[in-house]
Automatic annotation (TrEMBL):
The protein's name in its UniProt record: Guanidinium exporter
Main location: membrane
Taxonomic source organism: Parabacteroides faecis
Gene3D superfamilies per UniProt: 1.10.3730.20
Residue intervals passing through the bilayer: 30-48, 60-79, 85-104
Length: 105
């Protein structure tokens, strides 16, 4: 169950920067800031639950990695951010690091 909590926490970790971006670029500032705050709270709560059974270092790396890579991909596909080769390679290195830490734990 810890890994499910961690996955949920990572997905909500994507929600808060997206909410902040939408608050800046749309007319619904309060709505999207609320989404960001709720996402932050849920992300932290699910990380808290996951750490009951998953070591803190592993949980934190996976949680932040899901958030970082997920936000990068949303930036590329939804907000038109650069999809340069170095950005993609760097994201792949993050994913490789997450897999390595998971395998080592």
């Amino acid at each position: 169950m810890g890994w499910i909590y961690l996955l949920l926490g990572g997905l909500f970790e994507i929600g808060w920067p997206v909410g902040m971006k939408l608050a800046q670029t749309t007319g619904s500032r309060f709505l999207y800031l609320s989404v960001a705050v709720i996402s932050m709270a849920l992300s932290g709560y699910f990380l808290y639950l996951a750490q009951r059974t998953i070591p803190i270092g592993t949980a934190y790396v996976v949680w932040t990695g899901i958030g970082a890579v997920g936000t990068l991909l949303i930036g590329i596909f939804i907000f038109g951010d650069s999809a340069g080769i170095w950005r993609i390679l760097s994201a792949m290195l993050v994913i490789c690091g997450i897999i390595g830490i998971k395998l080592a734990s």
